Amino acid sequence: MDQSKTHILVADDEPSLCAGIKEALEREGYRVTTATDGQAAADLLEQDNYNLVIADVRMPGRTGSELLAQLKTKSPEAAMILMTAYGTVTAAVDAMKQGAYDYFPKPLDLRRLRSTVKKALEYQSVVAENKDLRQRLQKRSVPNPLLGSSAGIAAISRIVNEIAPSDITVLITGESGTGKELVAHSIHHKSLRRDQPFVSVNCAALPEQLLESELFGHVKGAFTGAYTTRTGRFQMAEGGTLFLDEVADMPPKGQGDLLRVIEEGVFQMVGQDDLTPANVRIITATNKNLEQCVKEGRFREDLFYRLNVMPIALPPLRERPEDIPLLMAAFLQHYVSKHKRPSLMITPEALGICQRYRWPGNVRELRNVVERLVITVHHRKIRVEDLPEPLRRAEAAQSEFAVRAGTSLREVEMQLIRQTLLHVSANREEAARSLGISRRALQYKLKKYGLLGPSKDTAEHGA
After folding, report:
1. What is the pLDDT of residues 73-82, one digit of tens each?
2. pTM for the structure as a whole
3. Which fold is adopted by the domain 3-133?
4. Where are the domains of the chain?
């Protein structure tokens, strides 16, 4: 934990003791605030967030036990250390049973206090990491957004299986919500590095001045505010996979640093002259056109070719509507179980609207809509009137199938067949009659264009 970002509250009705603890902890790089009575400490707890509270058991205004209860309500992951005179040891032990980390008898041993503070903060960090891990595992339990039988999804699955065992550098492209990070996870978990870390970095979320430190780490004293040595993401991912999301937004210096690591296999921590080997597999992703960024001078051409060794382009959901029934069924089953709701089915009319909708947010938007329906629909079937207004409004504005001049006959025929199945009839026999061809000919063309999916002759889809 970065000491400069660690905020500690010290509360005791002896001002000299507060000042002594404050001085000792500030020497370690911590940020310390003091209060000389319980009520002042309670007010400070409401006004700000603290990683750790050190408080006397008995104070005017509020007791240490009362502060502990307040702290656990406001910041459950924060730690608390109690100070106590001889006669209040029992109260301190009782407070520990309620969640305090430790207690100290007075007079204080400041050296031991500093050591305990460090351990308490390390424990707090582990608790936070475990919570984050549980949240990520829960997130992964959501059905795979790449479910489907369309030709595009089948091709991506084949590519992932083929490249996973190697260390080839991968560039994943696609619109927001198409599942780029999921593909990166899948490659890692099918690779020989599966037992090593998978570390993710959102390049767009980091300001330029912090990116180098975030990727490569820094040593103590490397710059103003560097009170401790910090491990970078390359070191965290040692032996595993480093996933760089939104790589197109990486600033120019970061691009140069990344290129050096890829070409030379080493990096430097900020403030250090020694080179550190980089044993990581790099997977990158972006929702931008990197080739266009290169032409516009916003992305290094040499880095682009280094990253684009194995490109994977994820199709938007609107280009694989035949996968929507399977995705919706999987999401329905998941959220019905998660929210402990009765099973839900979707009527063919409502499902048809979902297949015709453009889904600008892709699979992520579909997933969110399904979860909302599971919560808000109180009957057994999802009907057209239950769908969100944007879907119903888009359906009402649906126009005729249009063809741009210059479109190939193959593309026209493929889109005509797809639109007929979606808008005229999902029954292949009826669709074939509408198109003026035999069912056998339609079946051949569906296979030819990779449009084969589960037959839609059934009336309803359920979870």
Report:
1. 888 778 899 8
2. 0.58
3. Rossmann fold (3.40.50)
4. 3-133, 151-315, 316-463
